[in-house]
Amino acid sequence: MDVRREVHSAVENFLTDVCGVDGATVTDTTRLSDVEVESLELVALVQELQRRFDIALTDERLMGVQTVGELVDLVALRLDEHATTADRVSLGE
């Protein structure tokens, strides 16, 4: 499974399990506000993604995220940045 698909699956599972959203309706263009994700649920989702993927998501990066696809892209980007940094460290750069 590619990283983006894995992140999307994690977001979809959270939205269905915690927020009661029908998983069949969760696409990249699904607006978080349209599925009525409350602010506390969004905080919990971000915390779950950080824990699951061992990354940090700053408030600055999260500002403006409105859709599932934007959130998935942000997490995938952080994972890529994290991997690149780890590669540099292992290479002694």
What is the CATH architecture descriptor?
A: Orthogonal Bundle
- CATH-wise, what's the superfamily? ACP-like
Order of helices and strands: HHHH
Distance between the termini: 30 Å
Q: What is the total domain count?
A: 1
The count of DSSP E runs of length 2 or more, i.e. the number of strands, is: 0
Strand content: under 5%
* Main pleated-sheet profile: none
Low-confidence stretches: none
Overall radius of gyration: 14 Å
Mean pLDDT: 88
Number of H- or I-type helical stretches: 4
Q: Report the principal-axis shape.
A: globular
Summarize the structure.
By secondary structure, the protein is mainly alpha-helical.
Can you walk through the features of this model?
The chain has 93 residues and is mainly α. It has one domain (3-90): ACP-like (Non-ribosomal Peptide Synthetase Peptidyl Carrier Protein, Chain A). It contains 4 helices and no strands. The chain has helices at 3-17, 39-53, 59-62, 68-90. α1 (3-17) packs across α4 (68-90). The protein is globular and about 35 Å long. The termini are far apart. The mean pLDDT is 88.
Which features would summarize this protein structure in a list?
PP-bd_ACP; Non-ribosomal Peptide Synthetase Peptidyl Carrier Protein, Chain A; ACP-like_sf; Carrier domain-containing protein; mainly alpha; 93 residues; 4 helices
Write the layout of secondary structure elements.
Elements: H1 3-17, H2 39-53, H3 59-62, H4 68-90
Helix pairs in contact: 1-4
